[in-house]
User: Fold this.
Amino acid sequence: MRKETKVRYKEANSSLQIQILLILTIFFAFIILLLTFLIFSSKQRFELQTTVHQRSSTNNTSIINSQQYLRLPTTIYPLHYDLKLQIYLPYREGLNFNERNFSIHADVAIRVICLHATDRIILNAKSLKFDESDVEVQNSYNESMPLISINRYQHEVNNIHVVEIVLMQELDSGHDYMIYIRYQGIINDVWSGGFYKTQYNINGETRLLALTQLQPTDASRLFPCFDEPEMKATFKISIIHPMGTSAVSNSPVRHFRHLNSKWSKTEFGVTPTMSTYLLAIAVSDFVFKFRHCGKIEIRVWCQSAMVYDIDYALRITCRLLIYYENFFSIPYPLKKLDIFTVPELRVLAMENWGLITVRQKLVLYNQRLNSLRERRVVTDVIAHEVAHMWFGNLATMRWWNDLWLNEGFATMMGQKAADFVENTTLRMSQCFAADITLKALSSDQHTTMTQPISLKENSDRIHGQDIKIIYNKGAAVIRMVESTIGKEVFRQGLNLYLVEFAYANAEKSDLLSSFSKIFKAIDHHHDPFFGTNFSVYDYIDSWIYQRGFPLLKVQQVGDYIEISQQIFDFDNNSEFANTQWKVPIFTRGNEQDEVHWLEEGKKLKLLHGSRTFVLDPNFHGYYRIQYELEYWKLLIDHLLYRHNYFSVSTRLKLLDDAFVLAETGRIPYAIPMKMSLYLRNETKVVPFITFLTRFETILYRVHRHSSASLFNKYMQFLMEPSFDRIIKAETDSNVPRNMEFE
Assistant:
């Protein structure tokens, strides 16, 4: 019995030894595999870091190829940002946060969707402090995904900063992910953009306020983000700010509370889907006035000492909203619109959706202290920015090469709306020509110094575009298009465009597609391209992708006039000598201007009979016109004895063309000088302004010559009969100043 037990014990002991040996074998095999993986992973990580170090060692700023990260990859797309900020702004004397003064401590949670499998998340972050320990990526199961590294790069030309988050495993296409980043930023100076500070005085005390200016690529100075116009998302903002200040953002306040004796917290509702550059916040001790415009609350913020000077801005903002809603047949999509006046802004105004920021001197108006000129400036500025609530904010250009889709339309529509607000036609009938089209022509007459309205789609340029071309030429060409296709077709086309691309992005071809759809729905007799061998696409392309503008040469051949074109170029640059356009030639019709086409490389013949005619009688075209010398003399006779035969815009165009053509040696100076004699009978101010602008060039050239006094006497001779009108114009101004906006 005992022997049998001993044998069984030996068998059991032998079996146990085998099991232990097997377990040890498996354990050591696992250890070997684990060590192999770790060594390989470390080697891979070391190689990646070495590559990054090698990039950095060649250039301290880690600049990479512009084609790689100038544009963010399309593998990841943002859906929503939850941004929480604590603002350390010592806004009043005696308030001190010590080493945290002028800093931002923040968290951002970004919900993204993966469109193509990738192991990298590429986003923008500029001058923001965070490292791997501050970043977490979670999958849809709330599981953290391990990181390999975070690499930073900079595109020097466009000042674009990129952060590359490298993951140990790929993100799956079609799945949502969360990116959490805790970071620190700074409150910059006004010219750096992002979130910046500025100051004002109240009762001898210096006060500070802070606000955003994010266009074009400075949202990434405020928070890590996908900082491109096309990367639209919704935003939920929460701000902890010093007690005694108010926080304002794009959306209405959802919740406000005092945290303690030092801090307040303001939470805002979710924004519409929009581009990052339109996000805005402002922290200040400003006050506001408000009014309701239907269901929309309008507020204008300012220093407490200026609260009585914002009534006009408050009143016209409501009228502007009504005008645009009716014109576009699309309601304003937010519940509120704030206008925040600031002492300093690196642009004149910025169209942040629901929170317009603007230099205070352009919005404040006191009827007892300010002139009519200053009131019109207020109207123009606000009209331009409110137009952006539709053009630019609701429908946004896909990339910065099509900035004219935002700014050209806002400039033109702003002039229309300003006329509506002031119950006048002054801007569109006279001032648009003088203050926008003529300025655009002057900016566009040197081919070596100008640029096209729209850069090609693959253009790397973001900064350094010619604002006068984008705004003024863009608006002038758009107005020419409206005159070509008709006001109602134009309005319907814009409505269709805004409806189709609401909360989305578009490019030039999308806008033209909307016009084409309207053409197909109307009688072909109202289609200006019917019977031609080109489309609205061809027409527009010839104007937005080419620099400069045409000079139309007009010759009389019996009862006909023959029109040809060549580029107007002060520089006589051979590179552009053969540039041609599809030119709409406007002539006076029975009820409205008629449109004829001058195509590239061809001449146009028109029957004119015996009556005196001028091309482009209402100055809707973007070109200059050179008549034969004998015909110039005939036009001068009409101006001298029947100047009202021509519209005001025609009179100023004839003057401007004649002086510029003389300046380039195409006609003798005797033509514009004799033409200007008619000004003694002129009753409108705008032609005088045009004349003085051109005559100033002559005075500058002869100011040291013995004949200078004669030119001064001639100017006095012309202006003497109208002196009182000119003085009144300079103080009250019939001509609103055209300015550059964002």
